[in-house]
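Quick one: co-fold with zinc ion.
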Amino acid sequence: MLAIRPLAEPERLDVLVLPVRPAEAAAGGDVSAELTPTAVTPPGDTADEAAVLVPAARLSGRAGEISTQLRPGRDPGRLVLLGIGDGGESSWRTAGAALARSVSDETHITIALPAGVTAAAVRGLTEGLLLASYRFRLTDDEPRTLDGVDLLVTDPAAHEDTVATARTTAAMTRLARDLTNTPSSVKNPQWFADQVAAASADLPDLRLTVRGPAELTAEGFGGILAVGGGSASGPRLLEMDWHPANARTHVVLVGKGITFDTGGISIKPVPAMKLMRKDMAGAAAVVAATLGAAAMRLPIRVTTLAPLAENMVSGSAFRPGDVIRHYGGTTSETTNSDAEGRLVLADAIAYAVRQLKPDLLVDLATLTGANAVALGKRTAALYSENDDLAADVLNAIEAAGEAAWRMPLHGDYVEYLGSEIADLYSAPTQGAGSVTAALYLREFTGDLRDRWLHLDMSAPSWADGDHAELSRGATGWGVRSLLRWLAAVD
Ligand code: BES
Ligand code: MN
Ligand code: ZN
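Sure, here it is.
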């Protein structure tokens, strides 16, 4: 991953980036942007040259605006003017992302940061650079890419922690993207568990337990076993525990980990199945956030559950209409084998409520296509009965640069969950698919009903093209938000 370091003196100068901000239009004048005064004086004649270029290039200073000037034979050989908008974290994230894309043919750049630059700005910039320069690669051969960024500031030491936090956040988001982008021929449940074990190797205080079919059977995880039963690669339940001595609050995170979703016997049509390798994006996000919490040594206990299974079509697959018995004893009539995510989540949630008894319970899942129908491709659906918890998580999501919208847990629709032969129908056929899925999960939250929050993140887990800090493919949605929230919980 790209190395980013704060520095007081430039050590090399291939490309110099100078920030440009919108300016108050002078009476009668047409000046609309200006060079931002920098902490460290830009070398040589670059500031004078840039001051001429800003009006000549008719820059507006909006976040992410880029203008490049080549200076063959001189140092730096390339001068980049970068719009930083209002200079807030989100503008800097956008600017960092645009910059990473525009200098992707360079290996090293130097950015002169504004005088008095805030920690939020440095965080946004660092995350934008690291997230937008992400590319998924199946092989190890690295193409020529940007590998060093120096941030020119007066007091480098003052920014080191901020850069480190942003680096960990971005590294964990990139890990979640890698896991999610990986083809399902590679990522079966055991492979996923192995990846997490490898990623936690240098975090000895992070406990990791993996249950296989034998343990799942002995303990009664009927939902995970049913969904995983049709696959040649058996299901797993991954449990991670970050338990620092100074923790006051205990959070349980649960993530849906379907390593491929064919829909099972209720098989999906071709277009709907195409991207179902991403159906473990919830598991990837909670696991990566937990690794991040441990790496940053956040003073909070985080226990993370990732039920992992492949939903396949075979002679041993579960059937629509089967009745399964979840962890703890609640039964579901599996009306549609394509509503598999909620079956594995139900087991994990019931286990958390009965065995772990946390203060707060949060689950992330690529649960329904209805998420995108209601909210479009970039926004998750958030459900909770707890206004404070909902507000805290929404704040963290917004600060992190992700998006969610709070949705209603309509009591009126609970009746659709009624089955004649089991406690619950797993897939009511009436509308509001994301809402009824949330209502189904709520049935398993027991004592934690009003301390539970559910995020249906099917839509924003994937980007159809490059967009700001998102690179085409898996987005790692939720890692940034969870880390913000976990750092703020008290
Ligand atoms: N994994 C899918 C949901 C999904 C759809 C995620 C599109 C990402 C993009 C989930 O398992 C599913 O199939 N849900 C069904 C539920 C229905 C059968 C009640 C759906 O949304 O159609
Ligand atoms: Mn499904
Ligand atoms: Zn699914």
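If it helps, The chain has two domains: 3-154, 171-488.
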